[in-house]
Amino acid sequence: MAARIMNLPKHGLCHLMRTSALARHYAGSTGSASPPQFTTLSVDDKTGIATLTLNRPPANALNAAFMGEIARSIKELEKSKCRGLILTSSSERIFCAGLDLKECYQAEASHLQGIWVALQNLWHTLYSTPLITVALINGHTVAGGGMLALSSEYRIMLPNFKIGINETMVGLAVPMWLIDTYLNVIPNRRVAEWDLTASRIYKSEHALKAGLVDELAASKEQGLERAVAFISSYPKHSLVARAITKRQFREKDLKNFEDNRQHDLEIFLSNIQKPNVQSYLGEYLESLKKKA
Ligand SMILES: CCCC/C=C\CC(=O)SCCNC(=O)CCNC(=O)[C@H](O)C(C)(C)COP(=O)(O)OP(=O)(O)OC[C@H]1O[C@@H](n2cnc3c(N)ncnc32)[C@H](O)[C@@H]1OP(=O)(O)O
After folding, report:
1. What's the pTM?
2. Segment 48-58 mean pLDDT
3. Cα-to-centroid distance, 173 and ligand 1 (Å)
4. CATH class of 19-222+235-291
């Protein structure tokens, strides 16, 4: 049975706890952090595999609270010595639509700063986690949603959805840490540069051919089975060595990010507050509304 967990035991595999108890645990263990609102987390006691389900309707658009919640869950799972993490969505159409653009439109600089810092922290937490990570992409995933998928180690996608990084189309530069993340998946620099400058969005089937995702699954249930099989394919005795090896692959990207964290924030703030970008954002949001 799926149950929310937050404060997990430090040794052995994770245990299931019921929602109310978890909320109390979480509030007690993290001081000021509020109880989870936008995610549900369940852990299979036998396999030690956690499933974190994104649940911020209608589009799982990322605001600071949502991103903080995902990052905190990952940190808690690391402490609990869980083996792996599956990221998925409660929506049948959208895995994640990226940053909450409504919160980026005509917002105070301090609010925009909070959003970007939360995005930076979430990327850093997911990209650097020793957990074995799988994105089960059961809906469209673009921009910040693409970041969640690409920062994971393995991607399983359902057919007929879209995946990609469309920042330039929205008027935002792709940050260096996301370029590095993309290159970690699509090492062909020319293809990567073209994709990211042109805001290329792939359909699932094409994403598989291009190597942007690793498998297609016919249904969410099949995707979950495949995700569990991927995580379980790593023998227990190899987990520490595996985590160190993963870290070594990602270390240079993480260091580059730390060296440029402040500059990266300044670029975002300067870009997003430009009158032409704000005006385009307003039109873009209208076009999303009209479509509905
Ligand atoms: C990545 C790191 C570096 C940069 C980081 C972040 C930058 C960003 O993330 S910018 C965000 C860019 N995101 C987008 O451009 C996505 C826009 N959305 C879409 O293209 C589609 O919604 C999507 C393909 C995801 C899904 O299509 P549909 O299934 O057809 O759904 P709808 O379009 O009808 O959307 C449903 C509902 O959600 C609202 N919505 C969608 N996206 C966002 C968003 N990013 N922020 C806020 N709200 C969003 C949309 O307006 C609809 O709302 P209602 O009209 O109220 O139903």
Report:
1. 0.91
2. 98
3. 18
4. alpha beta
